User: Which sequence fits this backbone?
C-alpha cells in the first residue's frame, strides 16, 4: 500500500513542478521588453536636422585638427628638447571655469571715487611705461644688429622652421578658449632661448584663457628667477592693460594671478614690487591684486621680505593698502621687519601733505597687531607722529591702543602692575580667592 501511495504522489509532484515552470514563463512574458527589443520609432524632422547640423560641426572640427597637425609636422629634430610626455595632464584637460566662475569677486570691487582721486595725488607724474617682453627682445635685437633698426617687429636669429612653427602657435593662442594646448608650446620652458621663442608667439595677443594656461605651464616648469621674468614682462602688463581698459579684470587673468602666487618669491619680485615701484598703481589695481594676496595662504618669510621691501620704497598712495594687507594677515613678524615698517611711518613726521585715510588705517593696523612688540621710544615717536598727522576718527583709536599696551620685552605681569587699582584688586580676588570666616547661623 505504501508503494502505491508513493507511486501516486510522484505524478502529482511532476504536475506541480510543470505548473510552477509555466507560471514563471508567463511572468517573464508579462515583463516589458527592453529598450533594444522595442520597435524603433520615427525620428522627428526637427531632431534629424539638429543631428545633421551637429555632425557637420564635428566634421569641421576634425578638419581643423588635421590642419593643425600638418602645421606641427615639420619640426626639425633636436629643436624641441624636453621630456616626451603623452599623458593628458590638467593643462590638456582644461574645459573652462564654469564651476568657479560664480565665486569670482576679484573684478567687481567697489571703488570709492573720492578715495581714488585722493590717492591719485600721490602717484608719480613721470612714471616710466611698463616694459614688456616684446620691448625687451626688440631692444636686444637692435643692439646686436643695426640693420633691423627700421623694422617694427624684428625676428630673432632662429631657424626658419622654428619661426614658422611658433608663429602658428601664436595664432592658435590668440583665439584659444578651451581644450588642449599645442605641444610645442609646452616645450618652451625647457628651451635655452625661451624668451626669444616666447616672443614669436606674440603674448600681447593671447586670449585670457591662453594666458591662464601659459601661467600654469611656466610657473610649474621654470625656476623662480625665470618665472619672475615671465610675470613681470608678460603677465603684469597684460593684467594692468585689462584693468585700465575694462575697469575690471577678466576671470581667467584673475586665476592667472592666483596661480602665479604659488611661486611667492617670483610673484612678489615680478608683480607686486614692480607694481609699487612704477608709481602709477591705481587704487583699482591695488584692490584687485590685493584680493589675491588676501585669499591665498603665503609663507610668512616671503610675506615678511615683501613687506620690508614695500616699506622701504618711495611712497605711493596704494603702498599703504598693501602694507595694511600684510599687517592684517597677523604674521609673527621679525623685529627687523617691524623696525622697517616703523621707519616707513616716521618718514611722514615732517611731511606737510594731508595723508589719505588708507595711510591712517594702515598705521592703526600696525599698532593694533604689534603694539606689544614696540619699544618705549617707538611709542613716543608714534605719539609725536599722530599729533602731526591727525584723523578725527582713526587717531583716537591709535592713541588708545598705544596707551593700553606693554613695551617690547616686558611680560604681561608688568602691564598689570601699571593698571588701575580696581583692576589689580579684581585680579587679586580671582587669583588668591580670599576666604572669609563663616558666620554661625542662629537657631530659632
Assistant:
Amino acid at each position: 500500500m505504501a508503494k502505491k501511495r508513493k507511486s501516486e504522489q510522484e505524478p502529482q509532484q511532476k504536475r506541480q513542478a510543470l505548473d510552477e515552470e509555466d507560471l514563471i514563463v508567463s511572468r517573464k512574458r508579462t515583463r516589458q521588453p527592453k529598450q533594444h527589443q522595442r520597435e524603433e520609432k520615427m525620428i522627428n524632422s526637427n531632431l534629424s536636422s539638429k543631428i545633421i547640423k551637429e555632425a557637420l560641426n564635428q566634421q569641421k572640427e576634425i578638419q581643423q585638427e588635421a590642419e593643425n597637425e600638418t602645421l606641427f609636422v615639420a619640426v626639425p629634430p633636436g629643436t624641441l628638447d624636453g621630456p616626451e610626455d603623452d599623458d593628458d595632464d590638467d593643462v590638456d584637460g582644461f574645459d573652462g571655469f564654469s564651476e568657479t566662475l560664480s565665486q569670482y569677486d576679484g573684478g567687481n570691487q567697489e571703488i570709492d571715487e573720492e578715495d581714488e582721486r585722493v590717492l591719485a595725488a600721490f602717484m608719480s607724474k613721470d612714471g616710466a611705461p611698463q616694459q614688456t617682453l616684446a620691448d625687451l627682445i626688440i631692444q636686444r635685437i637692435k643692439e646686436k644688429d643695426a640693420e633691423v633698426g627700421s623694422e617694427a617687429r624684428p625676428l630673432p636669429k632662429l631657424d626658419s622652421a622654428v619661426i614658422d612653427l611658433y608663429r602658428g602657435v601664436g595664432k592658435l593662442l590668440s583665439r584659444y578658449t578651451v581644450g588642449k594646448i599645442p605641444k610645442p608650446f609646452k616645450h618652451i620652458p625647457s628651451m635655452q632661448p625661451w624668451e626669444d621663442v616666447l616672443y614669436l608667439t606674440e603674448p600681447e595677443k593671447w586670449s585670457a584663457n591662453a594666458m591662464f594656461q601659459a601661467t600654469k605651464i611656466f610657473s610649474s616648469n621654470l625656476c623662480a628667477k625665470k618665472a619672475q621674468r615671465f610675470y613681470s614682462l608678460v603677465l603684469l602688463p597684460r593684467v594692468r592693460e585689462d584693468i585700465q581698459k575694462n575697469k575690471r579684470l577678466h576671470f581667467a587673468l584673475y586665476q592667472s594671478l592666483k596661480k602665479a602666487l604659488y611661486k611667492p618669491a617670483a610673484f612678489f619680485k615680478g608683480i607686486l614690487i614692480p607694481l609699487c615701484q612704477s608709481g602709477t598703481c591705481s587704487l583699482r589695481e591695488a584692490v584687485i591684486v590685493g584680493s589675491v594676496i588676501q585669499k591665498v595662504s603665503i609663507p610668512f618669510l616671503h610675506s615678511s621680505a615683501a613687506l620690508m621691501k614695500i616699506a622701504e620704497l618711495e611712497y605711493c598712495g596704494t603702498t599703504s593698502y598693501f602694507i595694511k594687507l600684510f599687517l592684517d594677515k597677523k604674521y609673527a613678524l621679525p623685529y627687523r621687519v617691524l623696525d622697517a615698517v616703523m621707519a616707513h611711518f616716521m618718514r611722514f613726521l615732517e611731511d606737510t601733505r594731508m595723508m589719505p585715510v588708507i595711510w591712517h588705517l594702515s598705521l592703526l593696523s600696525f599698532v593694533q597687531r604689534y603694539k606689544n612688540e614696540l619699544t618705549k621710544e617707538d611709542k613716543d615717536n608714534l605719539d609725536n607722529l599722530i599729533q602731526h598727522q591727525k584723523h578725527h576718527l582713526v587717531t583716537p583709536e591709535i592713541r588708545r591702543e598705544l596707551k593700553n599696551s606693554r613695551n617690547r620685552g616686558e611680560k604681561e605681569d608688568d602691564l598689570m602692575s601699571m593698571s588701575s587699582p580696581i583692576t589689580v584688586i579684581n585680579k587679586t580676588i580671582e587669583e588668591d580667592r580670599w576666604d572669609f570666616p563663616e558666620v554661625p547661623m542662629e537657631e530659632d
Notes: Residues 300-427 form one domain. The two ends are 105 Å apart (CA to CA). The longest helix spans residues 2-30. Residues 68-91, 416-444 have pLDDT under 50 and may be disordered.
